[in-house]
């Protein structure tokens, strides 16, 4: 199964087990994150609904890209400026594509009314 995920203003086509490099995301190496901004999902040539679909990923490393040299010059004006920049990025490994988070939220929502219902009669007594 594959999905198209939007993060950092860019779109990435991912499948389980893929490694991708994205714009810097908060988190330490080894922690997991999930994307809910899914644009497209499918398996083979069939497309599937993206309602409630999430993509889980694990942060492998926080790193920097190669240096980009910015050089400005105006000829015959003795104007030269040299600057460098290294963009920070995050390396991710996609662990799963599925609606696992939706099921977990549903279980928590079911548990909350039961707990609230058990407390209400005790409060009345």
Automatic annotation (TrEMBL):
GO molecular function, one term: rRNA binding
Keyword terms, alphabetized: Ribonucleoprotein, Ribosomal protein, RNA-binding, rRNA-binding
One annotated GO biological process: translation
Record's keyword annotation contains rRNA-binding: yes
Lineage top rank: taxon: Bacteria
Stretches with biased composition (Low complexity): 112-125
Sections of the chain in a coiled coil: none
Residue segments, region Disordered: 105-125
GO cellular component labels: cytoplasm; ribonucleoprotein complex; ribosome
Matches recorded under InterPro entries: bL21-like, bL21-like_sf, Ribosomal_bL21
Function according to Swiss-Prot or TrEMBL: This protein binds to 23S rRNA in the presence of protein L20.
Family: Belongs to the bacterial ribosomal protein bL21 family.
PANTHER family associated with the record: 50S RIBOSOMAL PROTEIN L21, LARGE RIBOSOMAL SUBUNIT PROTEIN BL21M
Subunit structure: Part of the 50S ribosomal subunit. Contacts protein L20.
Protein name: Large ribosomal subunit protein bL21
Annotated source species: Sphingomonas alpina
């Amino acid at each position: 199964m594959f999905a198209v995920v939007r993060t950092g203003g860019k779109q990435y086509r991912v499948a389980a087990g893929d490694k991708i490099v994205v714009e810097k995301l908060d988190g330490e190496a080894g922690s997991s994150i999930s994307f809910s901004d899914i644009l497209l999902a499918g398996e083979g040539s069939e497309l599937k609904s993206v309602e409630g679909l999430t993509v889980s990923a694990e942060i492998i490393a926080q790193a920097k890209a190669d240096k980009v040299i910015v050089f400005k010059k105006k000829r015959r004006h003795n104007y030269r400026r040299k600057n460098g920049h290294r963009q920070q990025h995050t390396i991710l490994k996609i662990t799963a594509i599925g609606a696992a988070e939706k099921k977990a939220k549903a279980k928590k929502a079911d548990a909350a009314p039961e707990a609230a219902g058990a407390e209400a009669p005790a409060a009345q007594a």
